[in-house]
Amino acid sequence: MLVDIPVDRFGGTAGVLRSSVDGACEAAPDRVAGVDEVDLGALKHSELVDELVDLVAERARLEGRYVAVLSELVSRDGAQSAAWQLREYTRMNGPQARSEAHLAEALVEHSFTDTLDALSAGEIQMSHAKVIARESPKEHRRSESDFLELCRAYPSDVIARHTLAYESLQVYADLETEAAANDRTPVDAELALQREERRCSVLLGDDGMWHLRADLDFITGRQISLQLAAAERAVRQRDEAGELTFPQRNADAICDLVLGRHKPQANLVVVADYDIVSGQLANPRLDDGTLLSAQLLAELAADAKVLPAMFKSDWSELALGRVRSASDAQRIVLAIRDGGCIGCATHSERCHAHHIEYYEDDGLTDIPNLALLCEPCHIDHHQRHWAIDTPPDGTPRRAPPAT
Predict the structure, then answer these.
(1) Is the model's pLDDT at 316 over the cut of 80?
(2) Coil vs helix vs strand at 377
(3) Per-residue CA distances from 136 to 2, 20, 144, 165, 237 (Å)
(4) Which residues of 320-329 are buried (b: 16+ CB within 10 A; e: fewer)?
(5) What is the average pLDDT across 28-43?
């Protein structure tokens, strides 16, 4: 159940939005101007990071002011006209103008003043506000206040994968009623909604190149991502000279798939815990943590290869010693443990199994010594020599280089 927020907080327009952020932004020009006075080259790494964090918060405060002004314009002229004015008067590209105008429209429509206040205070980013505006009005989603609590602690891409309010007792009651009425869980309802909203376009751009875009549900999209990753690896094997960039290999891979030149084998990893007491599978999910319903699990398992396995906390059963490359079984376990790239959360199929203690330095190809890194993060790791810490829970985390 969503928490009711008084509509009159907007006073019928977005005027209150403007006044709520005036004070926070008056000092912004002085703060930003002060950056030029700092000798960035003389700063320690920790001081540079502190400066970066301050500037990101300042940018968020300015974005809060910007969204407040845009919300007032939307309340007067409508989102479509506001988007046109953004493009006409600021030279902003059309898609960005429409996206930000619709964000302002959603904040006004659903009275999400707390979200704007958090943005204006530099506590959250514009991307957080977009997740809240898109997800919170939906049934069985977290409330605005619950989303804001998460937004103050996590990046928006993490929050976007965990939008259902499973912890709410009221939601549990609603789910039981809904399940009894139509035997459909919120996960199934979300999948059905996403499939209704699917779309794809192939357009000739102003640059003379064709632009492919698709919005797909969380199952189909992940399956295509896996197929594309497998096709990209095949392109990389053909590229003996190593001349192609990663984006170029991706482009060649999707052409191979669409034109039928390559049909790679790729597996969607579905994880479920076995409850010894009940003898039932519980908590079905994808390796990135995306929740699945029992019905969806059954559908995916119908034609699936099953890897029944129980492992010790140190994963010693999967130790390969001095073999260079991780095995398929190890990659599955790494996908489950790390959930994707430990640097940027890119999905596991786009990642390399990196040796924490380098293989050249006698590092072993064992799970405790492996971590998933996408190609850009992997290259950056070897160039910058970032440390990787492994906490007691066994999930590696990147740490900044020593200064």
Answers:
(1) no
(2) helix
(3) 8, 22, 6, 10, 44
(4) beeeeebeee
(5) 64
Tokens representing residue 184 in the block? 């459909």
Please spell the DSSP secondary structure of 179-230, one letter per residue: HHHH---HHHHHHHHHHHT-EEEEEE-TTSSEEEEEE--HHHHHHHHHHHHH
Report the chain's mean pLDDT, rounded to a whole number: 78
**β strands within 32-132, DSSP E:** none
Q: From start to end of 216-279, where are the E strands?
A: 270-275
- Name the residue type at position 1: M
In which band, very low, low, confident or very high, does the pLDDT at 187 lie, cut at 50, 70 and 90? Answer: confident
Cα distance between residue 136 and residue 163, in whole Å: 8
Provide DSSP, 321-333.
TT-SSPPHHHHHH
Q: Yes or no: say if 128 and 157 are a contact pair by the CB < 8 Å rule.
A: no
Tokens for 257? 């798939």
Q: For 112-143, how does the pLDDT look when each residue is reduced to its tens digit (9 = 90+)?
A: 999 989 998 889 999 999 999 988 887 767 88
Residue 280 has pLDDT above 80, yes or no: no
Alpha-carbon distance values, 176 to 137, 182, 270, 378 (Å)? 20, 10, 25, 45
CA-CA distance, 390 to 267, in Å (whole number)?
A: 28
Phi, psi of 279 (to 5 degrees): 70, 20
Q: Where are the beta strands (DSSP E) in 152-207?
A: 199-204
Q: Under DSSP, is residue 142 helix (H, G, I), strand (E, B) or coil?
A: coil
Average pLDDT over residues 286-301: 78
The 8-class DSSP code of residue 401 comes to P
| Amino acid, res. 187 | V
Rounded distance, CA 260 to CA 258, Å?
Answer: 5
Structure tokens at 272: 């479920």
Task: Output Rg (C-alpha) for the chain, integer angstroms.
Answer: 24
Tell me how far apart the alpha carbons of residues 111 and 108 are, in angstroms, rounded to a whole number: 5
